[in-house]
Design brief:
The protein is built from 16 helices and 10 strands. With 403 residues, the chain is mainly alpha-helical. The strands form 4 sheets. The chain has a 3-stranded antiparallel beta sheet. It binds protoporphyrin IX containing FE.
Length: 403
Amino acid sequence: MVFFCGPAANKFLFSSESKVVATWWPSTFNKLFHSNSSFTSSTSTGVKTKSVRDVVSGFLKMDVLQNYVSTIDSIAREHIEKEWEPKEGKVVVVEAVKKYTLVLACQLLVGIKDHEHWVGFGERFASVLAGIVSVTIDFPGTTFSKAIKDAQFLRKELVVIIRERKTRLKKEENPTVHDLLSGILLTLDANGKFRTEEDTAGQIMGLLIAGHETASVALTFTIKYLAELPHVYQEVFKEIMEIAKAKGPGELLNWGDIKKMSYTWNVTCEAMRLAPPAQMGFKEALSDFTFAGFTIPKGWKACWSVHSTNKDPNYFPNPEEFDPTRFEGNGPAPYTYVPFGGGQRICLGREYARLELLVFIYNLVKKFEWKKLVPNERITFNPSPSPENGLPICLKPHDTSST
Ligand code: HEM
């Protein structure tokens, strides 16, 4: 389903002149967060010119990510040992999964090892996300004003990391791309110049937000449905134990194991259909067109609703029913299931998200079953769906003698 809004509203919300805090993809950052500090400008030989989008899509391709499955697994294990196991009585899921997705994004994308320091900034990341969809009034006390301050704080912290990395890369004879940050620092922009530290910090901040907030919603709702639907949990458990039984003690997951988790992935897809982490998006009309009897002029933006598209009964019979089998075979028809968007700007992180979600669910289901502590918890939207009390659950470890 789509809604339309005119250019005036677009300019207010999304133009490069408005103070949008972190729509990292449009070039808003460059105007808002201009800095004088720059990595020595150069058009020197041998260094590639690449858009940040190209660097990001290169790093987030499945054939690159496959090499990180065991790293993701060891981070997930460590996280569960630290944040879930000691709290067998009670875990607040939203809080815990946000830590996991943030730690993973910090380490994998930016090479940050000081996890505790960054986990402490969770609230600030959430504030910037809220600012992106807030009314753009920069007045003390508004969501938008708070988001601007938090975004400035986060970028400052990131600049410290970027400077350290630049120093390290300069010392290397043949600097190599270890992660996304190195990839961005080692390529030139369209003008043949290295990107400024401030611009790079803005891009990385946007990626960390895109990379952890959405995935934590998908995980929260998967865990919620697994608690509510024991027969679905049992199927997931069966699939996971098949993989676990074939592994040696302490052996980490690999790409082959991920490919075997098709039912578990269908469950996660169904959770994202019913509770999409991103509720909507905007697309700009490149030429006049007619849709459902409405003529949309060039330049207008169409707001597409993930929520109602994913629940269209023409494509999803009994749309409110949780049914992972919808994704078997060829799955839903193109553009009917859109939690990751669609077309040319489809989410670049969807394969990364698949890995981080599957690896986490594998580790959690292998060790525990769980019960919701608030049976009819209300779902709020800010801007993503979230259980009102953070989904408190009670964990019960499996009897290890039988597994
Ligand atoms: C369950 C997790 C996720 C969901 C539901 C999600 C959803 C979305 C959606 C709806 C869009 C807009 C697509 C469009 O306009 O057609 C998007 C774009 C994007 N996402 Fe994700 N995302 C997720 C995870 C991630 C992760 C983990 C990363 C990075 C590591 C990421 C990076 C991006 C980027 C870079 C874009 C912009 C693509 C472009 O404009 O070309 N996302 N995502």
